[in-house]
Every structure is written in C-alpha cells, then in structure tokens.
Amino acid sequence: MARLNTFFLSPDQWPAVAGDVVVLSGPEARHMGTILRTERSQTVRLFDGHGRDGLFTVRDIAKNRAELEALELAEHPASATGLTLAIGWGKSKRRDYLLEKTVELQGAGLIFWQAARSQGSLPDDPKETWTEKFVQAAKQCGAVWLPELDTVSGGVDGLIPLAGRFDHCYLAWEAEEAVTPLSPVMLSKGRTLVVIGPEGGFDPDEADRLVRAGFGPVTLGPSILRWETAAVYCLSLAMFGAQDRS
Predict the structure, then answer these.
(1) Running DSSP on this structure, what letter comes out for residue 175?
(2) Where in this chain does the record put each Ribosomal RNA small subunit methyltransferase E methyltransferase domain (predicted)?
(3) I need a surface site. Which of 5, 17, 55, 56 has the fewest CB within 10 A?
(4) Do 88 and 201 sit in the same domain of this protein?
C-alpha cells in the first residue's frame, strides 16, 4: 500500500469523533491542493503534533482551503521517558538540520540557551519557522508528537531552575573532569535533560556552576564534536536506549 500524504492540523481544530468535518487552510492546504494536486475523495493522513493522527477523506478542495471528513482517529500516549536537549545558542547554518533530526530521532524537547560564548543574541521566544521545521520533519518521518521548544535567557541562571522538571540532568563536557561516557541506559530512565555548549564550548564558570547544581558531567567520546553532531549523538543514544528497553 502506498504511503499516504500527511498534513498538519492544529490541536485546537482536531475532531472529536470520526465523521466530524475539519477545514485545512493556509500553507498546508496549498501544499495539498497546489503542490500535491490532491483530489476529492482521496484519503490522506492528518496529525496534530500532540499524539493524535487519523485518516481523512477530502470532501472539497480549493487553492487555499480543504474540507475533510475524519474516517479513523487514533491517540498515542506520550512516553514516560524522553530526552530534552539544552543547546548553547549560536549563529549556526545547521540549525535547520538540528531541528529536523530532533523530530526524526524522537527527541522530547529542544531548548536554546544564551551561553557566555554564544554567537549572537538569542530570540526571546521560539521562532515560528522553527516549529514549521518540526512539522515538515514529522510529516516526512511519520512522528505524531512534536518536541517541546523553548528559549532560555540569563545563561546558567536560567538553565539551573529547569532541573526540577527532569529526573536526570547531565552536562556534555569536553573537559578531563568528564570521565563517564553518556550511554543509552542513562537516557532510558525517566525524563532526561542534557546540556550542550555552543560552538565555542562552555565557559569554565558555566560548567562549574552546572556541576555544583547537580548536573552530572559526561563525555561524548574523545573527539571534539560540532554543535549539531553532539546533539544527534545524544538523540541517537536515547533512541537506542528506548528501543532496547522495549
């Protein structure tokens, strides 16, 4: 059976039961009608990024609007475990790649934080284009949950209070003091936060304060990894740990 085309429907528009009718508009409707040339009576898949997806039939379609009827609806509960990455902000051209891989590798969340060695100023709030990248990646890989997205200003003073949200907190540190390798097992127990520095690495005071606040220092191996490589490495370990646990 051919893979169905997938589109994003915001959670507040999600139908209550099969048979309900929803309206898709904006870029998703244009993609459905203009790019993919979807026709009436075709079946497509919709998801809301909050664990719900379903099969829908197209009742009517125009350039910027599509009317669909729900055929089958499903809910997928959130996992009790998951990895959130807190990554030092930087003017990286590879940010889109990072956003994409966070979805594909089933990351629970992504936080950008203003580090001492960050290049450029962190936006006050996550940009809409970042969420759009999440949606594009989820449509491609079939994910039903979008990672939580946040920005944290104030350096480690903004990061440290976040520890209370998680069961385990680690600091991915390239210094000699970090001798414990991050492992899949460590990332498969509850909600985990891993802090990664910006391209220039952690300022010594930042790392010291995080360690004193209870963030366990871990190593990602002998190589000095790029910003996005470190993130993908951590996400891959977490996915492997989740699969091994199941």
Answers:
(1) S
(2) 82-238
(3) 17
(4) yes
pLDDT exceeds cutoff 50 at 211? yes
Pairing state between β 21-25 and 43-47: unpaired
Residues 102 and 161 in one domain: yes
Q: What pTM did the predictor assign?
A: 0.93
Angstrom distance (rounded) from CA 169 to CA 191:
9
- Pick the closest to residue 91 from 66, 75, 115, 57 (CA basis): 115
Residues, the chain: 246
The tens digit of pLDDT for each residue in 185-210 reads 999 989 999 999 998 899 999 999 99
Whole-number Cα distances in Å, 33 to 9, 29, 38 = 15, 6, 5
Within this chain, do residues 150 and 66 fall inside the same structural domain, yes or no? no
- Number of structural domains (the chain) is 2
Query: Are 17 and 150 within 8 A, CB to CB?
Result: no
User: Is the same domain home to 47 and 159?
Assistant: no
pLDDT given for residue 145 in this prediction: 98
Same structural domain, 147 and 203: yes
